[in-house]
């Protein structure tokens, strides 16, 4: 079920990306970047680094760009996982 929902949601993302509306593009960019950022947070270390302001700006710019591209693959999986968990909870509560 998770794989089928992943493909469906990925198709919906591709459909919205092809519409050409700037409003939809901004929402899609934000959604993909959010899930990509969360995925990058899981693999980066949780330690404080001392860097100059310019290096911090560069770090966040690179992380922002990477989060969009990673989010393109991670977001459909995470959304499908949320949907399947909700369906499983409703089935478990229904019995």
Give a quick precis of the structure.
With about 100 residues, the chain is mainly alpha-helical.
Class inferred from helices and paired strands: mainly alpha
How much strand?
under 5%
Q: From N to C, what is the helix and strand string?
A: HHH
* Strand segment tally: 0
Descriptive notes:
The protein has 95 residues and is mostly helical. Helix content is 84%, strand content 0%. The chain contains three helices and no strands. The protein has helices at residues 2-17, 22-43, 53-94. It is flat. The model has no long low-confidence stretch (mean pLDDT 85).
Q: What brief labels describe this structure?
A:
flat, mainly alpha, 0% strand, 95 residues
């Amino acid at each position: 079920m998770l794989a089928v929902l992943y493909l469906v949601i990925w198709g919906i993302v591709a459909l919205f990306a092809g519409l050409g509306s700037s409003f939809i593009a901004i929402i899609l960019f934000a959604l993909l970047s959010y899930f990509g950022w969360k995925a990058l947070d899981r693999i980066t270390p949780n330690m404080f680094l001392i860097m100059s302001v310019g290096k911090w700006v560069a770090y966040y710019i690179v992380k922002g760009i990477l989060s969009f591209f990673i989010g393109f693959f991670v977001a459909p999986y995470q959304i499908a996982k949320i949907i399947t968990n909700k369906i499983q909870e409703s089935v478990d509560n229904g019995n």
